Amino acid sequence: MLGGNMNKMMKQIQKMQAEIMKLQEELGNRSVESTAGGGVVKVVANGKQELLSVEIKPEVVDPNDVEMLQDLILTAVNNALSQSREMVNIEMGKIAPGLNLPGLF
Fold first, then answer.
1. Region 61-89: what's the mean pLDDT?
2. How far apart, in Å, are the Cα atoms of 91 and each of 45, 69, 86, 97?
């Protein structure tokens, strides 16, 4: 009896692992976009928390105020990465509901 339940559970785990691997690949192809400063800085990241692009409008580039530009970039990047993590958590939650494994995804 116990062996049958264990085999069933192992098959479910293997299926979940395959679904997670497939989803991770799909998330690498999905992206989120974040802007800062009213759109003068735009950052795009994928579901693997990789930055895909950074766009900076020329009018925000002020050699006398580099710190403002740095702050705008940091804000946009951190927001994009946060959105990406949220997207991953939502999608992974669909595959493994009820599993609260912080940092796993």
1. 94
2. 16, 33, 9, 10
Any idea where the domains of the chain sit in the sequence?
2-95
Core vs surface per residue 46-77: b (16+ CB within 10 A) or e: bbeeeeeeeebeeebeeeeeeeebeebbebbb
**Domain 2-95 in CATH: superfamily?**
Nucleoid-associated protein YbaB-like domain (3.30.1310.10)
pLDDT per residue as tens digits for the range 7-58: 888 888 888 888 888 888 888 899 999 999 999 999 999 999 999 999 999 9
Q: Which two tokens stand for residue 24?
A: 């991770």
Q: Residue 102 corresponds to which tokens in the numbers above?
A: 């912080």
